[in-house]
Amino acid sequence: MRKTLALQAVLLLHRKMPGELKRLQNELLKRTLRILLIPAVPAFLHSGWQNIQGGDLDRLLFLYTPLMLAYCIIVFVDRIPYAVRSGSIIVILTAVSTSELVLFGLASLGFMFFSLATLMATVFHGLRIGLISLAVFVTIALLSAYGYDTGWIPIRGPSPQQLVSAKFQNWITPILFFILAGGGGATMTWTLLSGLSGTLEKLFMREKELEELTSGLEEKVTHRTRELEEMYATAQEELALAARTQESFLAQDARSPENWEVAIAYQPYQMVSGDVYDLYFRDGQLLGVSLFDVSGHGVASGLLTLMTRSLARSMFFEDPEEPLSHTMDRFNARLTYELKDLEYHVTGVMLRFFPGTNDYEYANAGHPEILHRIPGSQSQSLEPFKSSGIEDYGALLGIHAVARNHTTIRQAIQPGDTLLLFTDGLEDLRSESGHTYGSKRLQELFASIDPQLTAQEQLNEVLDTLHAFRGNQKITDDITALVLKRLH
């Protein structure tokens, strides 16, 4: 999805924000320290002049001068880390304020600023940094106190109270106050900006890690998608090959034998069908026909149709004189053995014709019954074979638990008679409203067709009516139908 320009701008600003804040905080601290240098120079000169007049050269040489040099180095040497600069300013200002004994004024203000800086350092940088800052301040305070107690830091004047009062009356006191307040403010500002930049930098690093993780995940998804697409393409090619193989077997039977018209409709639900039919010829004579429906859909069912077709053909020609029910029983036994480890079953019908006669045998194995159309009668009736349920026409094939002997029905077929063999996908077609066409309406439809039509025309009438009933509703099962019309 394309990002809007506004979103891109926000993301760009967010990515640059840690660096910009660092630059801002460094520039702010540097300028603040240089501004504080303006009043610090005259304050240093004034204090030095007083020390010279009072003969207090130790304070000038060993306190003010080193502190002033350190302050200038901190201000003008950019290579010094800004964290060191900020902390050093506090040290210098604390030393100056305590050395002047402004303990109840400037020193207390410095303590307040340093306490706030320590608190912010703890919040933004963790407890360890906060404790280090506190330790530095306490160390400076203790050393200053020790210096006053031992005399290492000399005290001018008779009493601290008088000296404090004198200092506040001196013109240098506001300058020292300004320097200390500015230094403390700069320290707190630096600490705040440092904390914000550190927090944003962590967020930026997390976002960067997330982007890298997302990028890696996208690459994996792309690679996996490409693999799946290749696998799908390979599977589609294999399915197409299986479908062509299946159709090539069935196309061998798409021929009209002597004395018969044969029409076939074959529509797989998927590329490979679970339906299979076969026509049995010898010397140009039609000896029989079979139609089987393997449970399930897809490649597995398609492979089983080839095995089913091969076994049925072998059993049909093995003993042409035996009753068709025996042929179906042997076929069922062999199929059950082959499917013992597979959760599949098969339904089907098998017919055997006797050339030179008008008779045929019919055996059913749990399949929709065939329709036998006899023209010329007053009612144009159909003669179905199933009369009272599955017990009369045989059980499913390939299931050992329901294996049972099948029954043979012998029936006469005259010139002009028509047979309709179909799988359940034909009568189970649904309309757009969800209604099933059903076997009863299929019988009525087949009975209403003009018997003078050819086998193909009769099949077209059936299919056109069913497709009109279905509308735009998709099929949900394989559809196979055969129409056989006896000519003479």
CATH topology assignment of the largest domain: Phosphatase 2c, domain 1
Give the overall pLDDT as a whole number: 73
Radius of gyration, in Å, reads 51 Å
CATH architecture of the largest domain: 4-Layer Sandwich
Residue runs with pLDDT of under 50 for 5 or more positions: 1-16, 101-109, 155-169, 387-391
Order of helices and strands: HHHHHHHEEEHHEEEEEHHHE
Q: Can you count the helices? A: 12
* Total E-strand runs: 9
Oligomer: single chain
- Helical coverage, percent range: 55-70%
The best one-word shape is rod-shaped
Q: Sheet with the most strands?
A: 5 strands, antiparallel
Strand content: 5-15%
Which CATH class of the largest domain applies here?
Alpha Beta
Strand order of the largest sheet: 2-3-4-5-7
Structural domain tally: 2
Annotated CATH homologous superfamily of the largest domain: PPM-type phosphatase domain
Structural class: alpha+beta
Q: How would you briefly describe this protein structure?
A:
Helix content is 59%, strand content 12%. It is an alpha+beta fold.
Account of the protein in words:
This protein is of the alpha+beta class and 488 residues long. It has 2 domains: 5-216, no CATH class; 252-486, Phosphatase 2c, domain 1. It has helices at 5-53, 57-76, 82-99, 106-125, 127-150, 160-169, 172-251, 299-318, 324-338, 424-427, 439-448, 455-470; strands spanning 260-267, 275-282, 285-294, 346-353, 359-365, 371-373, 409-412, 418-422, 479-486. The protein has a 5-stranded antiparallel beta sheet with strand order 2-3-4-5-7, covered by helices on one side. It has a 4-stranded antiparallel beta sheet with strand order 1-9-8-6. Strand 2 and strand 3 (285-294) form a beta hairpin. Helix 1 runs antiparallel to helix 2 (57-76), helix 2 (57-76) runs antiparallel to helix 3 (82-99) and helix 4 runs parallel beside helix 7. It is rod-shaped.
